[in-house]
């Protein structure tokens, strides 16, 4: 009777719920790749560099006297390259007195 029908309906609901979770998990996996790439491009995290686009603004920049700039070196390479090297220094503090721009 009615108990058997309720168990079948519960089983169907459970199956739909699990399948929905699997589909959402797969969708999140595919969405995470471009989201991470966008995050890295915006923050320079993960070794991605930013490219200057506003050349007029750069050309009209004021010279900063005695500004201390910290330059960090990394040795990130894809695992498929199988290169092993490390920078001699992890970071270097430098004072830049002049801006050189070549476009």
From TrEMBL:
Keyword Phosphoprotein applies: no
Keywords on record: Membrane, Transmembrane, Transmembrane helix
Location (main, coarse): mitochondrion
Source taxon at top rank: Eukaryota
Pfam assignment, any one: CtaG_Cox11
Transmembrane segments: 14-36
Record-linked InterPro entries: CtaG/Cox11_dom_sf, Cyt_c_oxidase_assmbl_CtaG
A GO term for molecular function: copper ion binding
Topological relation to the membrane, as annotated: Single-pass membrane protein
Location of this chain's protein in the cell: Mitochondrion inner membrane
GO cellular component: mitochondrial inner membrane
Keyword Nucleotide-binding in annotation: no
Coiled coil ranges: none
Function (record text): Exerts its effect at some terminal stage of cytochrome c oxidase synthesis, probably by being involved in the insertion of the copper B into subunit I.
This protein's name: Cytochrome c oxidase assembly protein COX11, mitochondrial
The organism of origin for this protein: Caenorhabditis japonica
